[in-house]
Every structure is written in structure tokens, then in C-alpha cells.
Write a structure and sequence with these properties.
Length: about 180
């Protein structure tokens, strides 16, 4: 598997306009008008309001049959009719990280149904998970989603369902940025 490094940069320029910013838990991010998502960790040209870094990685809590179902259903990023996006950086608590792998899987899927719920929204919502914790970043995960205007309501429903699960009791920082493609 090829590891891809990704930067999310909030500032005065970018390919995505930030249309809404909501802090659900923990500290917020400084205000920014635009967002750039680009491969690599290089310093941004214009001074950013914030710069979050992540990388793609292997699956931790997914069985072989779930992985096959995801692969069969999921859509790629960059679809021309996906004019909307969301960046949701998330940090989980020390209590989560102190659990065993088996306990985390039980909370994540057997009790919270994260993958099962999410699967209902594929391929309407395209997604990419980036890990940050191992970089010493302020968030553990940078989650990215792209969708069309017709599916914005479905995306709100999806995040509402996930936030009411047992898994989300372990989320101690979450910021929800909504975006519209500039070009
Ligand atoms: C679009 C539908 C979705 C699907 C199909 C989906 C599926 C998945 C899968 C397969 C994983 C990786 C599990 C592993 O490592 O094996 C994952 C992780 C994750 N997802 Fe989702 N997800 C969806 C939506 C969301 C949304 C809307 C959010 C945020 C509000 C979210 C936040 C996360 C986080 C934070 C992780 C990392 C969990 C951890 O490793 O502790 N997901 N998701």
C-alpha cells in the first residue's frame, strides 16, 4: 500500500471556500476563509491560519468481508458533480487509546456500527481517512468527504447518527468544516 502524505491548509486562498465551521468538542481552529488540500507537507506559500498534516494508512478495524464490500461500493474523490466537501478533524481521548485493539473494534463496529452505518451512504459520499496521531499532530484523524448538493442532507444525517454512538463518547476534540469548490 502506498502511503500518501496530505496537508490541509486553512487561509486566505484555496480551492475550497469554507462555508461553515462548527466546533463540537474541544478547542476550535482559527478562522479561515479558504482551504487547500494537497499532497505533501511543504510549507504553504501564503502564511496559513492553520496547517494540519496526515497520511493514508492500513485499516485497523475492518474485516476482509467489510473491506471487500467497501471496495465494491466506494466512489473516488474528485467527481465533477461533487461540489461540496467536509473536513472533520477528530481527536480521541486517552481512555480510547488505553483500550485493547479488541475492545476498540467492539466499540467501533459491534456496538456503534460505524462501518455498517457508513456503508449505507456509499457511493453518494466519497471519503478518505487520514491518520495524524503518530505525527504528534493536534488531531488523531483528518476525515474528508466529498458529495453533491443533493446529498448534503444525507451527509448531515450520517454525521448525526455517528455522533450519537458509543464510539463518539471517546471523541474529545471535533471540528466540522463545510466547504464548496471554488473552481
Ligand atoms: C461515508 C461513510 C463512512 C464510511 C463508509 C466510513 C467507514 C470507515 C472505515 C472503514 C474506517 C476505517 C476503520 C479501520 O481502520 O479499519 C473509518 C474510520 C474512521 N471514520 Fe468513518 N466512515 C464514514 C463516515 C465517517 C464520518 C462522517 C466521520 C466523521 C464525522 C467518520 C470518522 C471516522 C474516524 C475518526 C475514523 C477513525 C477511527 C479510529 O481509527 O479510531 N467516518 N470509517
Amino acid at each position: 500500500m502506498q502511503v500518501v502524505h496530505i496537508s490541509f491548509i486553512g487561509g486566505s486562498i484555496g480551492d475550497w471556500r469554507i462555508t461553515a465551521a462548527q466546533t463540537l468538542r474541544g478547542a476550535s481552529l482559527p478562522t479561515a476563509a479558504f482551504l487547500t488540500r494537497k499532497e505533501g507537507f511543504e510549507q504553504p506559500t501564503a502564511p496559513p491560519a492553520w496547517h494540519l498534516r496526515g497520511f493514508t494508512s492500513n485499516l485497523r478495524y475492518t474485516t476482509a468481508s467489510e473491506a471487500a464490500e467497501l471496495a465494491g461500493r466506494q466512489a473516488p474523490l474528485g467527481r465533477s458533480d461533487s461540489r461540496l466537501a467536509a473536513l472533520i478533524p477528530i481527536r480521541k481521548s486517552e481512555a480510547w487509546w488505553a483500550l485493547g485493539q479488541d475492545e476498540r473494534r467492539a466499540i467501533y463496529e459491534e456496538r456503534s456500527r460505524h462501518t455498517s452505518i457508513g456503508m449505507e451512504y456509499l457511493p453518494r459520499i466519497a471519503r478518505k481517512l487520514h491518520h495524524s496521531r503518530d505525527l504528534g499532530e493536534p488531531f488523531d484523524f483528518l476525515t474528508w468527504f466529498e458529495f453533491g448538493e443533493a446529498d448534503a442532507g444525507a451527509f448531515d444525517e450520517l454525521v448525526g447518527r455517528l455522533r450519537s454512538t458509543e464510539e463518539w463518547q471517546y471523541v474529545d476534540r471535533e471540528v466540522d468544516l463545510r466547504l464548496a469548490r471554488v473552481v
